[in-house]
Design goal:
The chain has 135 residues and is an alpha+beta fold. It is built from 2 helices and 8 strands; from the N terminus they run H-E-E-E-E-E-E-E-H-E. The protein is elongated.
């Protein structure tokens, strides 16, 4: 009986995790006064993502914030299209510093502040977005 419950619970979790905007954050690459963080996004929702706004925080090896940037990573402007269901896209966060980075051991933390779905409906960010960090 416990095996059946576990199987049902596992299947329910697997189905709910697929119905999300999946975001993979690549490691930070630095060149001079620029840090670049690549986001790879896949729309696993049943509707298109018209726009998504995210903030990227750069943290040094002590966990101190050393830079940030907020951008529309999907849509948001006339020249950036919506992300259709079952499709993917990439976005480069470019964060500049007035002086060269004091460390190359930077980490990125990305969080979404707004996601607009097809028809202007707001997404539930806590449930509709899955952000993972690539190694």
């Amino acid at each position: 009986m416990n095996a059946i419950r576990f199987s049902v619970l596992f299947l329910a979790c697997a189905l709910t995790t697929q119905a999300q905007l999946a975001v993979t954050v690549s490691p930070v690459k630095t060149t001079g006064q620029k840090a670049i963080v690549l986001l790879a996004m896949t729309n696993n929702l049943a509707v298109s993502v018209e726009s998504a706004r995210a903030v990227c925080f750069l943290l040094d090896d002590q966990g101190k914030m050393v830079g940030q940037s907020t951008k529309w990573v999907i849509g948001g402007t006339k020249d950036r299209q919506a992300l259709q269901p079952k499709s993917g896209t990439k976005f480069n966060f470019v964060i500049t510093s007035p002086q060269p980075w004091t460390t190359t051991n930077l980490a990125a933390k990305v969080s979404f502040s707004r996601i607009v779905l097809d028809g202007g409906k707001q997404a539930d960010i806590k449930h509709d977005v899955l952000v993972t960090i690539a190694n």
